[in-house]
Amino acid sequence: MESSEEHRHIVGYGQLAVVLALLLALTGVTVAVSYIDLGFLNVPAALTIATLKAALVLLFFMHLRYEGPIIRYGFITTVMFLAIMIGFTFWDVAFR
Amino acid sequence: MTTAQSYLEHSSPPGRRGWKAWLLTHDHKRLGLMYLWAILFWFVLAVLLGLLMRTELMGAGRTIMGAETYSSMFTLHGVIMIFFFGIPAIPAIFGNFFLPIQLGADDVFFPRLNLLSWYLFMFGGGFAIFSLFFGDGFPDTGWTFYVPFSISSAGNVSLTVTAAFILGMSSMLTGLNFVTTFHRLRHKGMGLMKIPLFTWSLYATAWVQILATPVIAITFVLVVLERLLAIGLFEPDRGGDPLLYQHLFWMYSHPAVYIIILPAMGVISEIIPVFSRKAIFGYKGIVYSSLAIAIAGSLVWAHHMYTSGMSDVSVFVFSLLTFLVAVPSAVKVFSWVSTMYRGSIAMSPPFFLSLCFIYLFTVGGLTGLVLGAAGTDIHVHDTHFVVAHFHFVMLGGTGFAFFAALHYWWPKMFGVLYRNRPAYVGAVAAAVGFVFHFVPMLILGMQGMPRRYYDYLPQYETGNFLAGFGAYLLVFGLLLMLLNLVLSLRGRRTAPANPWGGTTLEWTVPSPPPVENFTATPEIKDFPYDFSEIVANSKK
């Protein structure tokens, strides 16, 4: 067995509340930014905020921050795989 | 240890009897057997469908079926062979049975989830049968379900892709179980470089199953939504892009080819050293090439789309990446052949089938390079050449490896020995029939005969007749091997624990294995293919 010790990390209410507040605040930022015309940066800005929010959920609500390397690498592999799939497909469209 | 303590006699969880001991089992070995019988049913059905198609093509003009029936036949043959046989066969049967044992574990990490996977597989199968006889008739799109035809076809496409969706869930859960078992239940003394190569190949496959299957699942959902609600994702008339479907489909379906072939390569990596009485050549090379195939094989999907109107840049990049996959595949073939070099070869049915695999798979790989090169692909695209190449890899490769695995592990799974002579006769007939079947198809394809046509020009008649003749010989060989194995269950020639002189952990336990796999702590060797003890004992 690779890791014989089961360890559970319990996140306190305080920390969870802070993350929740951050998520709500970032939602507010998303709405606020949508009223500003940033031209080409409209989509990148919205996606950056969404990525930040997803990262918070993954790290704290889904405990990725406290997991071992296997889970972390597994997750990173999955995201990279998805990025390549989407990237290569858009690549075709871009040069068609 | 007596057979009375085997998993066939004792249920898991204990105390269950009769049908409950099977249908509610948590035992990975019983589930492996349950997959075996279900998958063999589908395999024989698809083989017979293929034979009917070949019979139709043996003479020009209509012989036993018309164009529409032929279209349904190749669709069903493809769907069953890919989703009901190729993808699940080796992982679900032999992976379920042997992965935990090879890792020194008593079961998979999620036994109940394993049972659920089997039920999803059976449910998906039931759904597929349902889709044939209810609704709008047989699907006729081919196993690729290409849009826009699959959106407009009158056939029962929606239900068939739903069946494939359910099967995909089964495949994902099996993959998840294998990855978790690999990491969490492996024996403490078994480092990464002490793991048998079959298990390594299943691990690489499992990652592809987990990562790629959701793509096809959601794509099938989108096809159903297109058919029911006309949402316009793939329909050019509504501003959709049919190439998007092809991208999404092949994102899964090309890796699916590696889901099918990687475990087969694992089987061959087990069998070759055992019957060469020699440590596998390039153990680490084979491990890394399995992982490399899993990764690189997931990046080459659009080589199916060179003639579809995709951008030239993408054609160039995907062609280049396709050639890269050939490298790790060649590493494996080189390692297998080098293992046999100066080995002490002991011929046996599984070893003979493995030799057939190496030859046929190599031809499949080399013809794949013809298709991977964008220039030559345009000439043979959508011809019989493609069909022959695919069958060289899938049937000549995985099919023969499947039969090799059956003959290799049958004594362990059932505790009985089979007769060698019918096995050899069947294997030779299958191999010769295979060559007669598919070599003419390679030539027909280069001459320009398109795939999926029930009729052809007169100049293609000789080739098609030869292919049909080969098909009958091939099917005779396959069925003879299966019959011989099934009849061995009646003969009860008891198998010893290690009839072949294998070195991996499954050969250290009785045949058939006890319900808990190991009655004592398994002894982990520094190298899983160390034959020094086996060779020393054989000299005594």
UniProtKB/TrEMBL annotation, chain A:
One family name in Pfam for this protein: COX4_pro
Keywords assigned: Cell membrane, Membrane, Transmembrane, Transmembrane helix
Superkingdom to which the source organism belongs: Bacteria
Subcellular location: Cell membrane
GO cellular component: plasma membrane
TM regions (residue ranges): 12-36, 42-61, 73-91
Membrane disposition: Multi-pass membrane protein
Descriptive protein name: Cytochrome c oxidase subunit 4
TrEMBL record, chain B:
Any single GO CC term annotated in Swiss-Prot or TrEMBL for this entry: membrane
Gene Ontology molecular-function annotations: cytochrome-c oxidase activity; heme binding
Alphabetical list of Gene3D superfamilies matching this protein: Cytochrome c oxidase-like, subunit I domain
Pfam families in the record: COX1
Domain of life: Bacteria
Membrane-spanning segments: 33-53, 73-101, 113-134, 154-179, 200-225, 245-268, 280-301, 313-331, 351-374, 386-410, 422-445, 465-487
GO biological process terms, semicolon-separated: aerobic respiration; electron transport coupled proton transport; respiratory electron transport chain
UniProt keyword annotations, A-Z: Electron transport, Membrane, Respiratory chain, Transmembrane, Transmembrane helix, Transport
Stretches assigned to the Cytochrome oxidase subunit I profile domain: 13-525
Database matches in PANTHER family: CYTOCHROME C OXIDASE SUBUNIT 1
Name of this protein: Cytochrome c oxidase subunit 1
Biological source species: Desulfoprunum benzoelyticum
Taxonomic lineage: Bacteria, Pseudomonadati, Thermodesulfobacteriota, Desulfobulbia, Desulfobulbales
